Amino acid sequence: MKAIRRFTVRPVLPEPLLPLADLARNLRWSWHTETRELFQSVDPEGWQAAGGDPVRLLGAVSAPRLEELAGDRRFLRRLAVVAADLDDYVHGGRWYQSHEDHAELPAGIAYFSPEFGITAALPQYSGGLGILAGDHLKAASDLGVPLIGVGLLYRHGYFRQSLSRDGWQQEHYPVLDPNELPVSLLRDGEGAPARVTLSLPGGRALHAHIWQARVGRVPLLLLDSDVEDNDAGAREVTDRLYGGGSDHRLLQEMLLGIGGVRAVRAYCGITGHPDPEVFHTNEGHAGFLGLERIRELEGEQGLGFEAAVEAVRAGTVFTTHTPVPAGIDRFERALVARHFGPGAELAALPVDRILELGAESYPGGDPGVFNMAVMGLRLAQRANGVSTLHGAVSRGMFAGLWPGFDPADVPITSVTNGVHAPTWVAPEVVRLGVRQIGAGRTEDALSVGGSQRWDAVADIGDQDIWDLRRVLREQLVQEVRDRLRASWLQRGAAEAELGWVDSVLDPDVLTIGFARRVPSYKRLTLMLRDPERLRALLLDPDRPVQIVVAGKAHPADDGGKRLVQELVRFSDDPRVRHRIVFLPDYGMAMAQKLYPGCDVWLNNPLRPLEACGTSGMKAALNGCLNLSVLDGWWDEWFEPDFGWAIPTADGLGTDEDRRDDLEAGALYELIEDRVAPRFYDRADRSGLPVRWIEMVRRTLVSLGPKVLAGRMVREYVERLYAPAARSHRALDADAARDLAWWKGRVRAAWPRVAVEHVEALAAAPVNGTAELGATLTLRVRVALDALTPEDVEVQAVAGRVDPQDVIRDGRSFPLKPTAGPDLEGRWMYEGPLALDRTGPYGYTVRILPAHPMLATPAELGLVAAPVETEAARDAGPGGGVLLR
């Protein structure tokens, strides 16, 4: 008989065990070994059955066992130590509090993301974006950064993946009960659940409760629309991650952005947490948070719309994660207009101005859509990509928002992603570090970074490293066999026909891992380009290779599902199934076994479509070597000492088949000629692959400090959060009005701002040549219309030029006003230009807006530069010419 309602009956903890409840509700246990070991000792079998989830464990442990533990002095001493350690971790000073500029750092930061991958026990993530957001929160906690995370609580999470008998991906959406998750309702001073409300068209309302997860020191607020006061449609808004059509997704993003700001205000009011001075928008999904803050400023401080925009921009950071326009959320303008304005949400804001913020008003843009990333960039004074290469790709992709500027001048910087080492480094690796450099230094190296700590790895012996790598590989082999057996049983196989599973993989064979989402650009099946050649690699009698593959295709992506099926069918072949496996339902729990157990981590996306690719970072922290296309983070940090770069055929344009053939061939050759020989080379008298071990050692020493989330968050604090906080504080109501007025005046005058005449007064090039170290003196006449020199900066830009006379790696030199204005409002500027580089050289002059509250001169997207004429070309390199 089926129950009509389900709920959880929790045991009452004896008073001596009450600290267990606090430990279970703080997700620090997910990366703190001592806390996990404490819970495991409560009931080892129950711990395994609960999937390593303390909340589920405590919900199932028997009352007699609890009474037994309450009288166990040894257990209570362990409990007291772990509880005291958590209290010190949460309340003690850390890196942020001891920062030399602590008084200048923001008192609070709100970090918005549509998904968070904290632990498998809280399945609110789909892939890299969510895992990155989770690692950001954990690292912020380790560093003491006063962050508040904001997201949605999806009642079905992201889908669980299984396979049909013929290898087709199947999706399952288990219902998640928040009362069985490590979260609790945020309640007001009277004990009532706090909630936020949004107005919907037609007089409807969208209510949401606020669930709180504790991520160490960091609160994570998750909004849940499954509230009884909502109608059926509104209750389903937070049903699943990235599900539903456009209207559904728009409502999710309105709740995340607008409702999220209201949730932050409620949380700060209830708990006394400092109000955020900085708002960080992690991808465009949360971009509507800027509109809610504009509404607040208009209502509370009486700012007009334009002034409110400036105040909001000052304290906002926007991070883009996608290198392709197809990865950006875009809605029909009519749909957005219907959900804002009179009778709907944010009724006080002009709908036309809202629509302008997301308009693709640039060449090639679609006038009929509202672009969430475009709005995010327009409402953030500071923006970044997630690797150096991705920053460059983003500057090119969004250059239309800054017309007249070269992509290199587009104000989008980069902060390369990092990963949270305490989460992703295997306990066996940590124990080796503790033996080598001590517990405190190991914890400091993993959480905060510092090359001196990682340098100590260089002293670990070859045998210790090789023994560790084999233990990790052996653990992976057992994990794979267990998961593979479960998958085949789910596919309909009988236990009697699965005896072969016990011989799948070999702990002494070179093991390659490949696991990620399955969009086409990640090329899951590139390794299958030449099946016979792959079989030869797998079955090589002297230097065999084994491959573990995992990944999920989006439920609506049949193309991705076909790739999964193709890989599964190949791996089902009895000839090779002991050497290559596909594991369904890739998630955090699997990943934490997969990364440490692999010898090589494979990544072969279409360059440059991988924004960062953090899975290879997690593998590297466990001594796994990377074999990857030079994309994302690998493009900037690759060295032959610790991995291999797969050559790419970037110049083939749209001939994708030819490109795949060439790059697959390069992959096979690398494995055949370099990777496998290095692994199996045991010529040393010790019988160890000493050159391979040295690459493992260099990976840990050189990459370890770089790939940490602690390094990443420190960069965000110092390069983006602190400047944003200073701008936020400086831009009070009056300053915001002044800045908005100034921008309006500059925009109105700019069509008549021009560089009219440029000439070199001294040391002009003769016959097109000049000597290194010479100095040109430039004189420039400019028209500023109603503007003054205080409103602009006039620059000479110089550097080497390519055959098309485009300046590469240019440097700017400010010019100073020397006369003016004349009767026609023109000014004369002069300044020196040092010729500090040899080879083809060129210069130009430009005018940019200048104001102390601009984060960059390119902020307004306005630039005035000379227009080349026939007279300019005839005058030669040093002549004075009139430019029109």
TrEMBL record:
Transmembrane segments: none annotated. Its EC number is 2.4.1.1. Residues 13-122 form the DUF3417 domain. It catalyses: [(1->4)-alpha-D-glucosyl](n) + phosphate = [(1->4)-alpha-D-glucosyl](n-1) + alpha-D-glucose 1-phosphate. Its cofactor is pyridoxal 5'-phosphate. InterPro entries: Agluc_phsphrylas, Glyco_trans_35, Glycogen/Maltodextrin_Phosph, Glycogen_phosphorylase_DUF3417, Pyridoxal_P_attach_site. Keywords: Allosteric enzyme, Carbohydrate metabolism, Glycosyltransferase, Pyridoxal phosphate, Transferase. It is an enzyme of class 2 (transferase). Belongs to the glycogen phosphorylase family. Phosphorylase is an important allosteric enzyme in carbohydrate metabolism. Enzymes from different sources differ in their regulatory mechanisms and in their natural substrates. However, all known phosphorylases share catalytic and structural properties. This is glycogen phosphorylase.
